[in-house]
Amino acid sequence: MKKQHSPLYFLTDKLEFPPVSMANSEGLLAVGGDLSPERLILAYRNGIFPWFNEDSLILWWCPDPRMVLFPSRVRISKSMRKLINSNVFEIRVNTAFEQVIDACASIQRKGQEGTWITKQMKKAFLKLHQLGIAKSYEVWKDDELVGGLYGVDLGHVFCGESMFSLVDNASKFALIMFAEDLVKKGYSLIDCQLYTPHLQTMGAEEISRKSFLKLLKGED
């Protein structure tokens, strides 16, 4: 992460965040606070998420633009449709949450040293999972976990945190099947947070923070 030069808002024990308009040009909004379930839920409901390194203070972000995927717009290639129809993979939900988060933390990613899924973050998300708020969508092959994703379920918007793949196309399969499931359930959005070329190829797009927050609040 680049060094920040703008004045930063430091959180206290009080359960609040500054207006997201105070975020700097990179999307950094605030520093400090804690990862209690109450603060995390408040953050995600307001379009804010934590992202920091192991040796860093907790950093809270609300970038503009925002990378999102409208579930009905997920892209399915002919090869992926063929894979889906082959029944090679099996989807399970919330059967191996801790395994999913561990896999996301340990997977090697291009251009990234280490992981932002710190011990603090894992502990916090396990608590959210126990409360039924953080969920995992898993890809199994021959009874082995080979891919999946996890995030925060707000009931109409799913805030995706991370995904992993141990075999070819497992994470693509997870995202496609997950998006199709959310369409059936009437969800309006998957929050992908930040741009990646991979997400773009799957149909994700950047929208303004203002537009994102309207969708998050259920406003058309």
Explain what this protein looks like in three dimensions.
The protein has 220 residues and is α+β, with helices and mostly antiparallel strands. The protein folds into two domains: 56 residues, Alpha-Beta Plaits (2-Layer Sandwich), CATH 3.30.70; 150 residues, 3-Layer(aba) Sandwich (Aminopeptidase). The protein is 31% helix and 25% strand. The chain contains seven helices and eleven strands. Strands 6-7-8-9-10-5-11 form a seven-stranded mixed sheet, sandwiched between helices. A hairpin with a 2-residue loop joins strand 7 and strand 8. The protein starts with 8 loop residues before the first strand and ends with a helix. The N terminus is likely disordered.
What's the quick description here?
It is built from 7 helices and 11 strands. The protein is an alpha+beta fold and 220 residues long. The strands form 2 sheets. It has a 7-stranded mixed sheet, with helices on both faces. It has a 4-stranded mixed sheet with strand order 1-2-4-3, with helices on one face.
Number of domains: 2
Taking all Cα atoms into account, the compactness measure Rg is 17 Å
Mean pLDDT: 93
Can you write the helix and strand succession as a string?
Answer: EEHEEEHEHHEEEHEHEH
CATH superfamily of the largest domain: Leucyl/phenylalanyl-tRNA-protein transferase, C-terminal domain
CATH class of the largest domain: Alpha Beta
Q: Kindly, what is the distance between the CA atoms of the first and last residues, rounded to a whole number of angstroms?
A: 34 Å
CATH architecture of the largest domain: 3-Layer(aba) Sandwich
Question: How many beta-strand runs?
Answer: 11
Give the fraction of residues assigned to helices.
25-40%
Main beta-sheet annotation: 7 strands, mixed
Low-confidence runs of at least 5 consecutive residues: 1-5
